Amino acid sequence: MSTDATKIRKKIAKLNKHLDELESQLEPLLSQSLAETLVRLDTIQQAKIQVVIPYVVYDLVFVYLKARGIDPMTHPVVRELDRVRVYFDKIKSAEESIQKRKSGLDKEAAERFIKHAIAHATNAKSAENEREDGSMDAAATPTPGPSTSALERVPPKITSKMLERAEYERNLK
Question: Which family, according to UniProt (predicted)?
Answer without folding.
Answer: Belongs to the C1D family.
